[in-house]
Design brief:
Elements (H helix, E strand, L loop, with lengths): L2 H13 L3 H10 L25 E6 L3 H17 L3 E7 L2 H10 L4 E5 L5 H11 L3 E5 L5 H9 L3 E7 L3 H8 L2 H8 L4 E4 L2 H10 L4 E3 L14 H11 L3 E8 L3 H10 L6 E7 L5 H7 L5 E3 L12 E3 L6 H7 L2 E4 L13 H4 L5
Parallel strand pairs: 1-2, 1-4, 2-3, 4-5, 5-6, 6-7, 8-9, 8-12, 9-11, 10-11
Helix pairs in contact: 3-4, 5-6
């Protein structure tokens, strides 16, 4: 084990004892599920599916990753009847969506913090035979302990950005040891493939981006009709997966151009931010999805503060603007989902 790996192991072992307080504070801010926050410590009390012969574990960090994994899970279950599937993610919103969308043969848990204690508890509880890590989820303790436990680990739809590659180049031995824990890599861009080949001899296969394999969800025609009638001829601008301050900044920017007949639909990344958004936009007339409101001729903004309804909002949109795409944030969110419904 390299010095970096040892240092990471020891540091995370110590930090584990600070984690309960951190999770408690985050739960007060609605950033963790109050009832399930201890799952991230590897403490599970959830009743599971009937025990099957084998267990497949699928992990995606947040909404985009877990949604892209759904076709994989459905196809896998269709061909393997005697296997249970445990899906993990890290965010409250992704958990809420998965509770609605997972097939009955699968269950959701929160992924453990990458401390040795939490990881060992998780693996002892779930006992996976195979673990599939979606996109760029690299957790050194989980990978090492899982591999030592005889679990086969596959990276699916892996992509490492130029920034991420530059970071790992600073610790090449550590990165090489991490990659040695995988069984194989399925990547969707040539840059990632070439980068991994520099550090690993494990099999690498180039595949299409699995996010394009998502099947558009059926949208309620009745709901769509009501919204279209109430919105009328106004052009719909969808602000999707927005973060702190983006809603006001974007709408104010549009309003400076004195646009006529425009209707805004806001879908915040974290619906619990609704009071903050309403306060920021106090000069606008707002209706809320969580209060079962429908738009009318008087209101200018519709706050879609629920989860799992992107299909409806994207179907209404003339223009879609993805959140986390501007100067105050790094990176952005994937536009594939709204594009599936024809949003521009």
């Amino acid at each position: 084990m390299s010095l970096c790996y040892k240092a990471y192991y020891v540091l995370t072992y110590i930090l584990h004892y600070c984690a309960p307080l951190l999770l408690y504070v985050r739960s007060l801010k609605n950033k963790e599920d109050k009832a399930r926050k201890n799952e991230k410590l590897g403490l599970y009390h959830k009743t599971y599916l009937q025990q099957k012969t084998k267990t497949l574990h699928v992990h995606g960090a947040s909404i985009g990753e877990v949604l892209s994994a759904l076709p994989v899970i459905h196809n896998f279950l269709a061909e393997n009847k005697n296997i249970r599937v445990i899906v993990t993610s890290g965010t409250v919103t992704s958990a809420q969506i998965l509770e609605k969308k997972l097939p009955k043969e699968a269950a959701h848990l929160f992924f453990p913090l990458d401390t040795p204690q939490a990881v060992k508890r998780f693996l002892e509880h779930v006992k996976p035979d195979v673990s599939i890590m979606i996109d760029s989820e690299i957790w050194p303790n989980f990978l090492r302990i899982a591999q030592q436990s005889g679990i086969r680990i596959y990276a699916l739809n892996m992509r490492l950005s130029t920034r991420t590659q530059a970071r790992w180049r600073r610790a090449p031995l550590f990165f090489r040891e991490i990659l040695d824990n995988y069984t194989a890599f399925f990547v969707h861009d040539r840059s990632t493939s070439a980068f991994i080949k520099e550090f690993s001899t494990k099999p690498i296969q180039l595949i299409p981006n699995i996010k394009w394999t998502q099947t558009p969800e059926a949208v309620s025609e009745d709901e769509l009709k009501i919204f279209k009638q109430n919105i009328g001829d106004r052009k719909v601008i969808l602000l999707l997966s927005t973060h702190d301050g983006e809603e006001k900044g974007l709408i104010d920017a549009f309003e400076k151009h004195d646009l006529k007949d425009v209707f805004y639909i806001i879908v915040p990344r974290h619906p619990n931010r609704a009071p903050e958004i309403i306060s920021d936009l106090k000069n606008y007339k707002i209706k809320q999805r969580s209060k079962r409101h429908y738009p009318d001729n008087a209101n200018e903004v519709y706050l879609a503060d629920t989860v799992g309804e992107v299909a409806l909002w994207a179907s209404l949109a003339d223009i879609c603007i993805m959140g986390k795409s501007f100067a105050s944030h790094r990176g952005g969110h994937n536009p594939i989902e709204p594009a599936l419904y024809g949003a521009v």
